[in-house]
């Protein structure tokens, strides 16, 4: 089912012929009519083609701009005492990552990351597709290079911001994930998926190699698995994605939301500041060799021990009867530098 749906997804924006031509009447005698059409007619065809192409381009640009002006259909649900924001993508275009959708998602994530009461973001979706990737009409020749640059610049900003956020982002996946949708999932910190999830990076089937999705994908799964997906366009089913590390937890469809909120609850039980610091350290040390990573880890732990929340957690552990730590959720220090 998922492969058939994915094939339809990739072909749904097949373009019609740009124009059709019919020969015009000629006042020349029949003997010269063919020659006249070969010269004057050629010029007429060229003019018609130019006019038709310009009109087609203008119509296409206007259509894309109108789609971008449509309000975002991503809604925010609040859970666990408004500490968990569950963003649900609900787009008629199979939750496509259009320029406007990425702008709205980026703005929402920035706003949530700046709110001290928020602890976790869950990124979910409705419908049979988690995300079908980029909005293909924005990637056609008619849209132009400037539009293409805008789309991929915003995609870069969105994906890198997810990694830079203090808040953990959990992808809650139930359905098909394609191309830039797989990139979005791979950029999240934790991925919890149902058995109905499947992932591809099938741009190669459209003549467009999924270069940007390859970046986080190759940092989540072994190179041979990533290249198999990138070069063949085949789907990676949920159980295989879980086996090779793209999916953190694999659960039944009925348990998906409960499992995701359960993970969010466990994160909420911890200090917001410590979680944010830990996330930043984790991604930073991935770029280092082992010795440098250990050096940074040592400095990080020694600095963390100066924090009030660290000393509060240790104190609560030794208190009898044992008590829950009372976090400040800040990096306030009790040991001076």
UniProtKB/TrEMBL annotation:
Keyword Membrane: no
Domain of life per record: Eukaryota
Keywords: Fatty acid metabolism, Lipid metabolism, Mitochondrion, Transit peptide
Subcellular location: Mitochondrion
Record GO biological process: fatty acid metabolic process
Annotated coiled-coil segments of the chain: none
InterPro entries, per the entry: ClpP/crotonase-like_dom_sf, Enoyl-CoA_hydra/iso, Enoyl-CoA_hydra_C, Mitochondrial_ECH-domain
Cellular component annotations (GO), alphabetically ordered: mitochondrion
Name this protein carries in UniProt: Enoyl-CoA hydratase domain-containing protein 3, mitochondrial
Organism of this sequence: Heterodera trifolii
Organism lineage string: Eukaryota, Metazoa, Ecdysozoa, Nematoda, Chromadorea
